[in-house]
Structures are given as structure tokens and as C-alpha cells.
Amino acid sequence: MKAIVQKVTKASVTVGDRCTGSIGQGMCVLLGISTKDTDKEIEWMANKLVKLRIFNHPDTDKPWDADLLQCKFGILIVSQFTLQCVLKGNKPDFHNAMKAEQSELMYNKFVQVLKSKIPNSDTLVQEGEFGAFMQVHIQNDGPVTIPIESPESLSTQKVKPAKPQKQNNKNQGKKKMESSEVAKDETDKVVEQVTEDLDKKL
Predict the structure, then answer these.
(1) Over the chain, what is the mean pLDDT?
(2) 3 state DSSP class of 39
(3) What three-state secondary structure class fits 102?
(4) Residues in contact with 122: Cβ distance below 8 Å, sequence separation at least 6, in sequence order
(5) How many C-beta atoms surround the C-beta of residue 189 within 10 A?
(6) Which residues share a beta bridge with 4?
């Protein structure tokens, strides 16, 4: 899952003549969902956004020291499958983007998870319109633009095969000595038998 986060003084989305969502000060987030994304990525990204410290602290005015919850700012979420683009030469390819029907379900779930983490979310969490041709109006503050990508899911991480255990060198040496002793005993027995046979003939 990828997101482009922009710190804004205001932002809004219109579809035709209709405004689907608008905020004042806060962050505008362009969200791209990939074919590999699961509920784990939804939870990770939602947590990252609400805890991202890109604002001045409301008490001290210290920069880069406060998040959305501390400042009680708004967040505008806009679905954007083109973030999953891979260039093939000069042509963009979107095969990494999740198919529209499934992606819409994931997007709606993401918005619900995000709202559950933000008080007064009905006002502070605004959206574009999934699948629509949108006009996104962003007044970037700074400018501050931060790309975020979720880490690989645990389900896709490869487990390294266990290394074969090394045998103890002492045990190996002991086994070799035992084998040598057995071979010596067998040789002594053969010699004794031959000697006895010779004595009888003499």
C-alpha cells in the first residue's frame, strides 16, 4: 500500500460540479492499493497516518512535533490506483494495482479503520469518490510532501531453510579411532589363525 501525504492549509475534491469532501488545515492523502494488500496493510497505514508528526505543536509551536490527533486537523483521503504504476519504457503499467471491485472494498475498509482512530471523524475525515474522475484541489503548506509505503506483509516473507547441524569433531575422531581398533583386532585374529595352521603342519 502506498500513500502520498501532503501537508495542506486546505484541500478539496470535486466530481463535476459536486464537492465530495473538503478540509481546512491538515493533510491530503493520495492512496494506492496493490494486489498484495491485506487487512495488515490497512491497519499499518492507518496507524502511520494518524501518528505522523508533520505539524507544529499546538502548545510550543515546535515544528515536526505534532500529529493529526494533537492538532485536531482534518484528513482528506483520495483513492489513486496510479500510485501502483510501473514504467515499461515510457508507458505506465498498472498491473500491480488491485482490481477495481476488490480495491473499492479495501478502500472502504481503510476509511472505516481510519475513522475509528480519529475523534469527531464525521467532520475531520473527508473523502474523494472512488472510481470517479476527480478534480483534487490542494494548497500545499510548505510545501511538505511525504511518500509512505507499507512494509512487505509477513505472509510474503520467505522463511530461510534451517542450516544442517555440524557433527562434533570430537565424536568424529572417536568413531575413527574405534573403527581403527576394530580393524586391528580383526587383523590380529587372522594372523593368529595362520600361525596356528602353520604350527600344525610342522
Answers:
(1) 86
(2) helix
(3) helix
(4) 115
(5) 10
(6) 30, 147
Over range 138-154, report the average pLDDT: 91
The one-character DSSP state at 193 is H
**Cα torsion 137, 83, 71, 119: sign:** positive
For residue 155, the SS3 value is helix
Residue 188 has pLDDT above 70, yes or no: no
Reading the block at residue 81, the C-alpha cell is 490506483
The predicted-structure confidence for 27-47, as pLDDT tens digits, reads as follows: 999 999 999 999 999 999 999
Strand partners for 23: 11
**Helix, strand, or coil (residue 42):** helix
Segment 40-66 shows an average pLDDT of 97
Position 152 scores a pLDDT of 84
> What distances in angstroms separate CA 62 from CA 45, 50, 56, 59, 141, one per listed residue?
25, 18, 5, 8, 16
User: Do residues 35 and 180 touch, judged by C-beta distance below 8 A?
Assistant: no
Quote the distance between the C-alpha of residue 172 and its chain's center. Answer: 46
Cell of 47: 496507524
